[in-house]
From TrEMBL:
Name under which the protein is recorded: Protein kinase domain-containing protein
Gene: ga22184
The keyword Kinase is annotated on this UniProt entry: yes
Keywords recorded for this protein, A-Z: ATP-binding, Kinase, Nucleotide-binding, Serine/threonine-protein kinase, Transferase
Membrane-spanning parts: none
InterPro entries: Kinase-like_dom_sf, Prot_kinase_dom, Protein_kinase_ATP_BS, Ser-Thr/Tyr_kinase_cat_dom, Ser/Thr_kinase_AS, WAK-like
A molecular function (GO) term: ATP binding
Length: 672
């Protein structure tokens, strides 16, 4: 039931110009031309979805290697509604919300570009495949969706308005490779400015999942989303549509709850075993609370998320040691009793952290450092024990740390780094690796998700990089194609360009080596290893609060006899060495072999003016050899002895992009 425009008493629909200005003020959202969209989609060659709004195509950025989804709208007369959707979506920044990359308003098209989510939508997974989905995975999907809605319903804290999604259903919940939920499609979403209710004469949405009060009265509130979420939750535990033929899951579950029996037959038989039945019953109860017709009794989505988190904890622990009677007797108090504080905004939270973190117990003067960690989640030891299954999957270790694989409540895969060195030695690690990284947001820099301060030594939680490090690739990958080498070079150069920009206050990384370059499932490189990173004074490029950093680099790393001053040009030097590694596939010891690597390439270059003897022997195509030669020459510029003669990382990144564009054109000519 869709009509062209909402009418809200006392509130105007944002005009096209107003929405455009709001989006333009968000510098993270790109504006594409129609030619851009045709190039990204290869002239709309790969259709991946279709609906009442239009079509969705797979796309890829030529220079950025990123897979994207391009949503093309059928009707061209809905520009105002389109811009309102873009305006709302552009305000979203949450791990369980699909990221908006950009949009295009052309003469003949309206298109929106978002991140590409690999596993499709929940509706297809539940109802159009036979794949087995564990209860744990289903709980993770529910938690991710609930946390996204809780975030939308609390956005008024920062922008004097909240967002009602308006169309929560399985088809609008996308799933990545790890079954992490991503809420999508904000076409029916509305900003509830300065309040929590909006009325409309023109009701829009999917009838099977729509709040009957909204349908009947035109009254849209965050509790409307709660109702829709309840329907989704039923589908997750029953693996049946809420309404199909004569079957109405909502009615069936409501009657079963009233009678106190008969629910077991409603659950998906694949997961309705003895170990899961209590969790499933509680999920059914929670769903029926969300679906009540008394809108005032529907729980807030923040409360729903907390109850789901608790259910997952007990599901993980098993019911042998659990007092279920006690648990459900106090469930009303869960949000207050069990909620973990993921920010450090309050003085009480800061004080609690200060007292619990051993590194800082001895020096209260460092208390202000903790204020910088407000962007990451503070984990408890119990939460990390659960996430890592009691640290059962070790994936790496060094003299100072152990690294484990884990998974969060919403199925997000993570890396948990547990330090085992001396406490005093780890303080610098925490300040550099924690404070600096917590304030950085870049797709090619490993994301710090949180840390644990219950332990005497710090524990950090990072996003998971499934393919391991570049060192693993150099030592174990059969085919290391030129395209992947260029991809790694370009993206790490762009990450360093970002670190050296005023957007971050200028940060010197200080440790650009293959072991610190991680790769995700799509071989997208992520720069890690920030233990030596420093914020630099913008005028003289020395560490803030530190004039000299000794012992961080081998002698003559910058070809000076003095102790090394951490400068951005040192990062350029190290990146030049990395380029030599990429073109030769020769790993090296950070403290010993970098000069030998440069000497070896210079010698090879003098012999044939190309350096061919230095290149990886697996690269044989002439057009690929030309690329390695260009990368080698750039490496020599980066590693020259005079600091002032080294290019900036901005210049390096642009030169590498130019090399890649030229190589792509040459490859196309050869194919023809």
């Amino acid at each position: 039931m869709k009509l062209p425009q909402d009418t809200i008493p006392g509130e105007d629909v944002p005009s096209h110009d107003t929405a455009m200005r709001a989006v333009d003020s968000n510098h993270n959202v790109r504006i594409f031309t129609e030619d851009d969209i045709r190039r990204i989609t290869r002239n709309y060659s790969t259709l991946i979805g279709k609906g009442g709004f239009g079509e969705v195509y797979e796309g890829i950025f030529d220079d950025n290697y990123d897979l994207v989804a391009v949503k093309r709208y059928i009707r061209e007369d809905l520009r105002k509604e389109f811009m309102e959707e873009v305006n709302i979506h552009s305000k979203m920044c949450h791990k369980n919300v699909v990221k908006l990359i950009g949009y295009c308003i052309g003469e003949s098209t309206l298109t929106m570009v978002t991140e590409y989510i690999s596993r499709g939508n929940l509706d297809d997974m539940l109802h159009n495949t036979n794949s087995f989905i564990t209860l744990d995975s289903r709980l993770g999907i529910a938690i991710g969706c609930a946390e996204a809605l809780s975030y939308m319903h609390s956005m008024h804290l920062s922008m004097n308005s909240l967002v009602c999604h308006g169309d929560i259903k399985p088809a609008n919940i996308l799933l990545d490779d790890n079954l992490v939920a991503k809420v999508s499609d904000f076409g029916l979403s509305r900003l509830l400015s300065g309040g929590i209710t909006r009325y409309t004469r023109n009701v829009k949405g999917s009838l099977d999942y729509m709040d009957p009060i909204y349908l009947r009265e035109g009254r849209l509130t965050p509790r409307s989303d709660t109702y829709s979420f309840g329907s989704v939750l039923l589908e997750l535990i029953a693996r049946k549509r809420v309404k199909q033929g004569e079957i109405n899951l909502i009615v069936a579950f409501s009657k079963a709850c009233e009678k106190g029996k008969g629910r077991k037959d409603l659950f998906d038989a694949e997961i309705a075993n003895e170990n899961n039945i209590k969790i499933l019953e509680e999920l059914g109860k929670l769903a029926t609370e969300c679906l009540t017709m008394d809108i005032g009794k529907r729980p807030h989505m923040s409360d729903v998320a907390e109850r789901l988190l608790m259910l997952r904890k007990f599901q993980k622990a098993g019911d042998e040691n659990t007092s279920w009677r006690f648990l459900w007797g106090v469930q009303i108090s869960w949000p207050r009793k069990y909620k973990h504080d993921t920010s450090l905004s309050s003085s009480s939270s800061l004080e609690q952290v200060r007292k619990s973190f051993g590194i800082f117990k001895r020096n209260s003067g460092n208390f202000d450092i903790l204020k910088e960690l407000g962007n990451v989640r503070i984990f408890t030891m119990a939460e990390l024990d659960e996430a890592t299954q009691n640290y059962s999957c070790l994936i790496g270790e060094s003299l100072s740390s152990e690294v484990y694989k884990g998974a969060l409540e919403d199925n997000t895969k993570v890396t948990v780094k547990k330090y085992i060195g001396k406490v005093d030695d780890l303080k610098e690690e925490f300040i550099n690796g924690g404070m600096i990284l917590s304030q950085i947001v870049h797709k090619n820099i490993i994301k710090l998700l949180g840390c644990c301060m219950d332990a005497y030594s710090p524990i950090f939680v990072y996003e998971y990089a499934a393919k391991g490090s570049l060192s693993n690739i150099l030592n174990g990958m059969d085919q290391f194609l030129p395209d992947l080498r260029l991809k790694i070079a370009v993206k790490i150069a762009e990450a360093l360009e970002y670190l050296h920009s005023t957007a971050t206050g200028i940060i010197g990384h200080g440790y650009i080596v293959p072991a610190k370059i991680l790769l995700d499932d799509n071989f997208m490189p992520k720069l890690s290893g920030f233990s030596w990173a420093r914020r630099l004074n913008m005028e003289n490029k020395i560490p803030v609060g530190d004039t000299v950093v000794s012992g961080c680099f081998p002698q003559n790393m910058t070809c000076d006899d003095q102790p090394v001053v951490l400068k951005v040009k040192t990062d350029v030097y190290q990146f030049g060495v990395l380029l030599l590694v990429l073109i030769s596939r020769k790993n090296y010891k950070f403290y010993e072999d970098h000069h030998h690597l440069i000497f070896e390439f210079v010698t090879a270059y003098k012999n044939d003016s190309r350096g061919r003897a230095f290149f990886d022997a697996d690269i044989t195509a002439e057009e690929d050899i030309t690329v390695l030669e260009a990368m080698g020459m750039l490496a020599l510029r980066c590693t020259c002895s005079e600091l002032d003669d080294r290019p900036t990382m901005k210049e390096v990144a642009e030169h590498l992009r130019m090399i890649r564009r030229s190589w792509k054109r040459t490859c196309n000519i050869f194919r023809c």
